[in-house]
Amino acid sequence: MRQTLQNYKILPYSNRYSSFYQEKESFYRSFINQYYLDFAHNQFTQERHDPYLSKTLIAPHDIQFGASPRKVIWKIGMPSFQVKDINDFKNHKILFYRTKLLRQKVLIQFHFINGFFYYSQLSFLTFTEKTHSILFNSIRTKYECPGSLEEQDRLYMTDICGNKLIIEKGVYLTACYITGDSYPRQLMEEQLREKHDLLSKADNYEIDRLSKIL
Hints:
By secondary structure, the chain is α+β, with helices and mostly antiparallel strands. Helix content is 43%, strand content 24%. The chain has six helices and eight strands. Mean pLDDT is 81; it is low at 1-17.
């Protein structure tokens, strides 16, 4: 018995926790890896033709865009996972929530830049045609879509503030919410300019270095 206890103590608590955290992080890595500065900025600049105009303000979980991470946590609870300063994106934070809706596994994301809530995504990791129909009809009811609006694999709508909601059926069934406020886009464009300047300086340095070697 003594030998068994000694063997158990070989693995410190901190290492066991670290291993658990790494396994947990790997689940979210596929969602984090795609989120670069260029990708995020592209979400704002893409224009879509003939969006449906909702009379109801678009607000996931009835949380207004611009809210702080603390306010979101106060409203929903502690996240399952969180990460900040993602890839080449500065002052950026994501709160992840794992839950179940309609008996399906769901991942919910809340994105912040400089503490400003600007993007959310609800993803059904598993879903059926029935799930898609219920989601579509729930969105149609909440945002007062006309009854004539037929169910489709991709639905794009906006409100009077320019906030966007995009429902799309692909690998996952997703509902994406994007703020119409210009503040996040301006911050991203500042970071893009800084990134471009740094890359230009690096290129010039390499060209100058090459000319000295030749």
